[in-house]
Each structure stands twice: as C-alpha cells, then as structure tokens.
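Attaching the record inline, Q. Sequence:
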Amino acid sequence: MKRAQKAKKGSVLAFLAVLVMVATGAGLALAQEGDGSLQMSAPPEFRSYLNALQQELDLGGHGFKVKYSPAMDRPLKHLAGLVVPKNWRQKANFALGATAPADLPASYDWRAHGGVTAVKDQGSCGSCWAFATVAPLESQIKAKCGTEENLSEQYLVSCNLNGWGCSGGWFAHDYHLSLARSGDEPGAVLESIFPYVAANATCQGPYDHPNQLISWSYVASSYGVPTAAAIKQAIYDYGPVAAAVCVGSHFTSYGSGIYDYNESCSGDVNHAITLVGWVDDPGPDNGYWILKNSWAPSWGEQGYMRIRYGVSKVGYAANYVEYTGCAERPRLDCSTAASLPLDTLSAGNNSAAVSKVSTYSCSGRSESGPEVAYTVNVATAGDLNVSLSGLNADLDVFILSACDAGACLAWGETSATLANAQPGTYTIVVEGNGEAIGDYSIKATVSKKLPDLTGQWTSITSSSGGKKISGTLKVSNLGAVSAGAFRVEIWQSNTGADKAKLLQSYSFSSLAAGKYTNLSFSYNASASLANKYLLAVVDSAGQVVESREDNNQAKGLILGQVKRKGLVE
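Structure, as predicted:
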C-alpha cells in the first residue's frame, strides 16, 4: 500500500482535511489558478493530500511549493536511513574554525565550478548515508582531475563492518580511507564493478579500489550543527560536504522554492545529504544552502533543494574529505583581470601573459597558449556575446561563471555567446590555441532584452470596519519584450513583508512590453484587516524570465474607511 493511502488513517491528513474545509468555507479556493495544476500529474490518491499540504504551507506563510515525485511512494524509513551512533562525537575528528574569512563570496555553487556529479536514486533502501559518503569524493575527483567517476554505494552497503545497510547507517568515509574487510583493501569501488541494487546484497570481494582518501573530518562543532560560516569555509576549500538533516512529510513533498519548514524527528536527524553551495540573501536566516539529495532528479528542483540556514537541523555533523589521487587542475590567474565595459571595443595582446590552463570544461580541446582574463558585469539579463576582431593569431574566447576553467559556460573561435545570461559578473578569457600569441580587439555586448514585471497599488479602500477590502493593482511590464503567462497572488500581510494568508490569485496570458493592466481586487474578511497590509506578488510562480527579479512585490497599507495610495517595495 502506498504511503499516502496509509497516511489517510493518521492525524496528518485528518488535520489537513479539516483545513481544506475551513479554507474553502472562507472563500479561499484551494490551490486555484495553478497550484492544483502542479499536482495533475500526481496519482489520484496524492492530489488531495498535496493540495491540502500546499494550503497549509501558504496559510503559514511558507514560500516553497510541493509536488508529487516517485519518492513519495516509499515509506520514510526507505528514504531517510541515517542512524546517529551513540557518543559519535567522542571519536570524531573536528577541524576548521567557526568563523569564515571575510572574503568568502556571498554565493558559491560547485555545480557552476565543475565539481558536482549527477543526482542518483537510492530506491527503496535506507542507504542515504552511503550516497552522502560517496558524493564528496566523486566531487573532488571531478573538480581536481576533470574526470567524472561513478563510485559504488553498494560496496558501502554490503561490505561495511558496522552492520549498516538498507535499514540505516552513518557516514562511512573510513572505508574510503583505511578500513576494509579482511583480505580486501580500503578505498572506493567503481559502480561498474559493484552496481547498486537497493538491497543488502552479499559482499564478494576482494575489489579493485582505484580512489582513496588521504583524510576526512567533521566541520568544527561538537554540538551537532556547525555555524554557517564554518560549513561555507569547508565547501569553499574542499568541495561539497556531507551532512545530515531532519526530514518528514513536508521535506519529502518538496517541489520548488526555498524550503523553510522545521520538521520534527524522533532523534536529532534522520537523513544524509550533500551541501554543494550557498546563497546569502536578506531573507530569514540570512541565506540558504543548495542541497543535493539522493531521491532521483524527479524530486525537488531536478534532485536539489534550496533550504534556509538552520532549518530542520540542516548541516548536522557536516563533514568533508580530502583526495589527492590526481594532479589538481591548474587555476586561472585573475589577479590582474581588467574590467571589460559593454559595447566598447578594447585593444588586447596575450604576448606577456602566462599559460595556466590547457583545457576548459566546455570545449575539451587543448589550448596551451597564454591567457588574458577580463571581467564583465551584466546588469540586465540577455544574450552575452564576446567577439574578437583584428586578429593576427589563432585565439579563442571563453565565458566563465567564475575564475575557474571548470566553470566554463560558452566558448568559440573568435566569438562566444552565452544565451540568457543572468545579471552578475562573468570572467572572460582570451587564450592562444597551440601556444599562439598576438594582438586583438575585444568587445562584449548584451543583445537580447527581457520583460520586467512589476506591480503598484494605486488605491486601497476598506469599509465595514476594515472587513471589506477593495483595491486596484497596476501590473506593468517595464521590459523591452512581451511577458508570457504569469500569475499574481494577493496576500494578507502583518508587516508588509510576510505572507500571512493567501487571499486571491489571478492568471495572465501575456503582457506586452511597455504596457500595463489594472487589476481590480475585492475581499470580504471575517475580522477587521485595518492596519494590515496587502502584499501583491507579481509572477509568483516564477514563470517569466525577467531582466529584474527584485521588483515583483508591492505592498499597501489597509486603513479603515480611507482610500490610500499604495506603497511599493
């Protein structure tokens, strides 16, 4: 029997069923205008569950969306199999300080730096601990060696000496470092040698172990969850880190957005995952982790989750590995990188440069020549094109997301184009093919324009003691091209920033460039909303790629019996 069918007998769905009836009676159409459509691909027995769960989250002011994935067909014990050993801290090796250097970037994502392998699926086996053990080593091999190895989780499940398996286990880096069964050697085994079967298969051996760690450590904190600064430092210095988190029905149903729900576990944590990066922002908890899961790409955001710092004890027992089994790829020198202004032809020469990199991740061809680095700032999203002219040598151009040959996004002979480049700073490299050196002129442009949706309350009126609310929201497209389909949500807000209660949701098929439409809003509340706010969220589902994403909210204060101009944020 599927998990959702079993849960109907429990208290969670009983509570959510009541919530659905209450919300519908208050005039809130459950998951109308789109949330329900996200669940149309779900089996019928999951649809009402997911819609009710989304309603609960919306009413609670949470900003993420839920969706069906095949992981929901499995009981929690087959998804979350991390078993915390008693007194594990007493034997643990803790390293790294609790404070990160001030020059750590505000965001970092190893996916953009060639340091993350494909998302896997642990199936109906509580082996998350094995997948979280393998992932950091696979990442170090890819980042340092430029090759992608698929390592065996089944080896850890079947050949460990701790009694771990599909019923649970703990981080098993020791088997990649120094521990092995009698007659075998330590180190990782290739997936092709011992394929994953999602079961407690028999360990045969001995096996070939081509990759071996030189060390591994927990990030400093004997109390469970290290500081965000310490985890960031470990990710930045050593690549993706393994860590634990507490998961439950909300986590397993995650679909998209920034996860901000604190789950409850019978112990501290119950699931092992990998943290591959972070983003600092002005939101709650000051930012979020980029979490890689082992429940297949169908779960979450292609197998990933964005989760707020500290939520559900994410980061518990964070740990990192060290691997030196290959020569580390040489790093670019961007210390003298000049700023490349847009739409300006600049002269250049690579004869005085030094060759640091021979191969870029997006081309695969050997360059070998001296390279010159530039930085270019893209303020408005569009197609970033970098072209060379006036050449007297065989030179290529590369567009990178950072000063790292593994972060290559586009390349070309004499020109390169990055489609739909988002606002930010990019590294541009001119490199000689086959040690070529010479003069050139370089120019960067952003050609494709994007829509820019925004909203402004032009009037808000209340009557009946603040219970009857009406208003007009001006929805505008300030961009240079038309916007496709999008939604607008109207929320009751206590502070002008929080989302206390979803009041209305509207759908738009399109909005032409430079045009606007006036949206008429009305709502009858059971209690006075005087001195509360109306918070409008334009393109609430993120359907439109925009030149700006920071001007999509508008707030307006509700005053009793008074018409008031809206305040825009």
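The longest helix spans residues 128-145. The chain has four domains: 3-61, 78-320, 338-446, 453-568.

More tomorrow.
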